[in-house]
Amino acid sequence: MSDAAHFRGLERLYAAAPVNHIFESRLTIPEAGRAEIRFGITPRMFHAAGAAHGTIYFKMLDDAAFYAANSMVEDMFMLTTQFNLFLTRPVKEEALTAVGQWVSGRRRVLIAESRLIDADGEEVARGQGTFMRSRIPLASLPGYAG
């Protein structure tokens, strides 16, 4: 399978996941080891004090790092085994991009990091995680094969 076919398969897999119908977003994998997720914060994502709940920070940062890592692995679905989250500032209703970057590892465990960037290019949060190969073939998952 070509890299491009693998990346498009991962993008379809992301789009097919039911949770991404709750948190509307779009994944793009421009190259191996990199993933970008674009989404908008809406008031329905706010906590009681009127800013985005940490759930959305975690989800988008984890997903961006995860797909950056899984772009390096063409046969199996990866699993998040650990993830650290650093919140820099609260966000209100605005467009954000989560950018994931593979850091190291190629066999069983991979490390990737991610940054959450606002429309002005400012970082609002960052994360780093470890991801392990599962026993689930990517080709068996809805959306991946097309």
Largest sheet: 6 strands, antiparallel
Q: Helicity level, as a percent range?
A: 10-25%
Count of DSSP-assigned helices:
3
CATH topology: Thiol Ester Dehydrase, Chain A
The residue-averaged pLDDT reads: 96
- The general outline is globular
The largest beta-sheet arranges its strands as 1-2-4-5-6-3
Structural class: alpha+beta
Give the class-level CATH name.
Alpha Beta
Series of H and E elements: HHEEHEEEE
Account of the 3D structure:
It is a single chain. This protein has 146 residues and is an alpha+beta fold. It has helices at residues 3-16, 19-22, 54-70, and strands spanning 25-31, 34-40, 76-87, 95-104, 109-118, 123-137. It has a 6-stranded antiparallel β-sheet. The radius of gyration is 15 Å and the shape is globular. The two termini are 13 Å apart.
